[in-house]
From TrEMBL:
Keywords: ATP-binding, Kinase, Membrane, Nucleotide-binding, Phosphoprotein, Transferase, Transmembrane, Transmembrane helix. This is non-specific serine/threonine protein kinase. It is a single-pass membrane protein. Its main location: membrane. It comes from Cucumis melo (Muskmelon). One of its GO terms (molecular function) is protein serine/threonine kinase activity. Its EC number is 2.7.11.1. It comes from the Eukaryota.
């Protein structure tokens, strides 16, 4: 799937709303960091939560 450049095959087909390609890429990169063979390079849960936060923050009054 990933190795064949078909990342959308990793998304559950039952999901009503599909992620954008940008969102999917970010989720897959985070997932790959979580399974790094070197345990010292894996992120903590706190780091994962920060990585999952949206980067496009809208400022409202």
């Amino acid at each position: 799937m990933i190795g064949h450049q078909q990342p959308f095959e990793t998304v559950d087909s039952k999901m009503e709303e599909k992620p954008s390609s940008k969102q999917l890429k970010r989720m897959l990169l985070i997932a790959l960091r979580c399974v790094d063979p070197d345990i010292q390079h894996r992120p903590t849960m706190a780091q994962i939560l920060l990585m999952l936060q949206p980067h496009d923050i809208l400022l409202t009054d």
